[in-house]
Amino acid sequence: MGLFDKLFNFGKSAEEESNDVEDTSGIRFGRYSDNNKTLTKTNQWYVAEDLYKSKKFNECIEAFFDYLRDEKEDNVKLVKDGSNYSFEIYQGTKIVHGTINDQEVKASVSLAKMEKPSIPVMRRLLEMNFSLYYARFALNEDKLCMLFDSPKEIASPNKLYYGLKELATKADKQDDLLLTDFASLQAVDDSHVAVFDKNEQTVKYHYFKKWIDDTLQQIDELNQDSFSGGIAYMLLTLIYRLDFMITPEGKLLNEIERINNLYWTNKEEKTAVERNQLLKEAFRKLVAWPEEEVKKYFYRAKATFAITLPKSYNDVIESIRSSKDNMLWYRENKYEGIAHRVLEYGLSYPQYSYSLPKPVTDLYKLYMQVNHAPFFEELGIKPSYIQSGKLNTDRIKASINAIILEFKDKFPKLTLDTNKLNFSNLLDFNITLMTEMETLNFDNK
Asked: Most buried of 43, 308, 382, 400, CB within 10 angstroms?
């Protein structure tokens, strides 16, 4: 932006200027994280704990559900009727329905409809009951469901959180698996999910195929032995990119998770070349799925609980540093495409594996928007960080500053020096952004 553009905003309105640093498309990327609560929301947890210790159970319930509720998601509803309550909690394709009276807290969620009794289905649920800590599987007439209950006087915020989280997340996971594995079962209570609009479906399906096809083609051109490490980075980065950018659900999500597990399960028993081969074969089968079968799992649903756990930010720093170190050989030997994949892995692995603070996820999204600009542009997402083939320095800096500022009250020591970023080319920008992300301080005091 030139001097006159800066002085006169190039004729932009305030609303247009705001859109330069904020995605207003409504399209969500990645999995929901409850590790992104504001300071006010976080304080409600401590309020609920104090009320519980004072035996003010109704006030505790109200503070707890206010802590759970995400206004942007509209994911939790609590209705008071005298001294009783009813509630709904949204998690993916499932809705947890519950009631609270003077004696107990009760919650249930329907998984699937089973018109005829099935011994294999019941055996599956009976075996899974042994792995649950708070909830249990049950049969209510012709519906498979999960239940949670607790006497009100021992329903502490801690017990409520982990009990309802187990109920909601396990139900959201198991309904997809049950419907996939047992053709006799029918879906129930999933009418609240929102199917992607036509353009989002079209763009995401195009890049779903493109990213897989391009990656497999690039890998086939490499020596499978001497480049086994780089190939592993390319395949794993592809998994995490698909998860974050495409946000598949249901059977498609389960298949992507299965492919990821192929690499990490019993890792010591197979060579890198063997594990890479397993992933390549799985991706070839996945990309061969019929278009309509893939698009069946392109939908958006509300969530209340993260499916991953928070980790120390030191784990993110370690991932960043490792990827930067492992990228060097590929950069020095002119394999810039692989160098980019290795760097992307440094941010995408923790994004996929952990529940990260929102500023980290937002910076990762900015990183992806810079590196995969055509995808975001075809979705109609603003701002655009690439103009005339060059990085838009002012716009990137403005977005980074806005990300940091949003959570300044919760993380007062959070800073990122945009003056240390190198905008001369994409690779140098990626390296310097990740270097600055190593210094992020999430101390809340």
From this structure: 400
What percent of the chain is modeled with pLDDT above 70? 94
Q: Pick the residue with more confidence: 39 or 417?
A: 417
Say if residue 189's pLDDT is above 90.
Answer: no
Structure tokens at 376: 């975001």
Two structure tokens written together for 265: 């399960």
Structure letter (DSSP) for residue 30: S
Cis peptide before 350 (omega within 30 of 0): no
Q: Judge contact between 411 and 442, C-beta under 8 A.
A: yes
Give Cβ neighbours of residue 141 (< 8 Å, ≥ 6 apart).
Answer: none
Tell me which of 3.40.50.1000, 3.30.1460.10, 3.30.200.20, 3.30.420.40 is the CATH number of domain 39-181: 3.30.1460.10
CA atoms within 13 A on the CB side of 293: 10
pTM of the predicted structure, to 2 decimals? 0.89
Q: Which of 336, 218, 343 is nearest to 276 (CA)?
A: 218
Kindly list the domain boundaries of the chain, sorted by start residue: 39-181, 196-437
Cβ partners under 8 Å of residue 183, min gap 6? none
